[in-house]
Design goal:
By secondary structure, this protein is an alpha/beta fold. 41% of the residues lie in helices and 19% in strands. The strands form 2 sheets. It has a 6-stranded parallel beta sheet, sandwiched between helices. A 6-stranded mixed beta sheet has the order 7-6-8-9-10-12, with helices on both faces. Helix 4 links the parallel strand 3 and strand 4. Bound molecules: alpha-L-arabinofuranose. The site of alpha-L-arabinofuranose (AHR) has 12 residues, from helix 2 and strand 9.
């Protein structure tokens, strides 16, 4: 009998049973999140992996409950996209004690020991913020004067909000004419992005740029600007992160000015990792998602083929 014949068939656990993965999702706060959830469901189906999916509705407590329930159910692998960065040590120690490997997807955590999870697949959020900042510095190089920036931040304490803010600040650091005149959280949602922007516009209409940590908040801000009689793309430039369909449409139409991509299509790579880990194969500790950036012209060209 050859060694290959002894190897477990693809996408089954080492004991020959169907692989079960428990996945705890952040919620449904944005177009990005919806596309991410669809990608995970589709990929599990394609890979023949049984998915137990739990929506935390934006609450860390719900994620901790879901992870404990996955441990009780003795799933083969636990994967989750953490709402916030801190507060995971206890529940992940429980998973480790139960011998269940954990994969972080999309967002990082801060933990006292790195061996509480096997691998982390997701974007480089610092780079995304940096790309937006660098593009703005370049864009304004031929436009003199102060650049007044409003920042709409993602969920407080989440890795993308912290890292995008840091990357953006690093990129504009050497340019004192860039002034962040307001920085408030819109929790990655369209309604909150709109509400925060409306509130800011009550006291300050002298805004050059809105840097939204995701497309949805940028779209909410666009609505608020329009309601205040300001034209996004002409009076105020909206730059954001994600490149979901609605954001790309706004960019192609000239309402947005620039987007750094954050890919939600993590499903296939995640299921590949689940399969390998369930079969005791080695995986790299960090997998960084491949991404690009879009100007208005590039959005027009990319939009017809955009999948999400
Ligand atoms: O963690 C990824 C971020 O979360 C996306 O940029 C945002 O749209 C989502 O809500």
């Amino acid at each position: 009998v050859s060694l290959a014949a002894c190897a477990p068939p693809e996408n089954l656990a080492a004991d020959g049973s169907k692989i079960v993965v428990g996945f705890s999702q952040v919620g449904a706060e944005s177009g990005w999140r919806t596309a991410n959830t669809v990608s995970i469901h589709d990929a599990a189906l394609d890979a023949g992996i049984k998915l137990r999916f739990s929506d935390a509705q934006g609450k860390q407590a719900n994620q901790i409950t879901a992870i404990r329930s996955f441990i009780k159910q003795r799933v083969d692998v636990i994967a989750f996209s953490p709402v916030v960065e801190t507060g995971w040590d206890e529940v992940l120690t429980e998973a480790r004690q139960a011998g269940i490997p954990v994969i972080l997807t999309d967002r990082a955590i801060r933990t006292t020991s790195k061996d509480l999870y096997t691998t982390f697949i997701g974007s480089d959020f610092v780079k995304e913020g940096t790309l937006v900042g660098e593009w703005l510095v370049d864009y304004y190089a031929s436009r003199p004067g102060t650049v007044r920036v409003v920042e709409l931040r993602g969920t407080t304490g989440s890795a993308p909000a912290t890292d995008r803010a840091a990357g953006f600040r690093a990129a504009i650091k050497g340019e004192p004419r860039f002034q962040i005149v307001a920085s408030r959280t819109g929790d990655f949602t369209r309604p909150k992005g709109e509400a925060v922007m409306r509130a800011i516009l009550k006291t300050d209409r002298d805004i050059d740029v809105v840097f939204a940590h995701n497309d949805d908040m940028g779209l909410g801000a666009a609505k608020a600007l329009e309601a205040a009689g300001l034209q996004p793309g002409r009076d105020v430039r909206i730059v954001s992160i994600d490149a979901v369909r609605d954001g790309m449409k706004a960019l192609a139409e000239g309402r947005f000015t620039f987007i750094a991509e954050c890919s939600p299509l993590l499903g296939p790579q995640l299921m590949d990792l689940v399969n390998k880990i369930a079969n005791g194969q080695p995986v790299p500790p960090r997998i960084v998602t491949q991404e690009t950036t879009f100007t208005q012209e590039q959005a027009k060209a990319a939009l017809p083929d955009r999948k999400y």
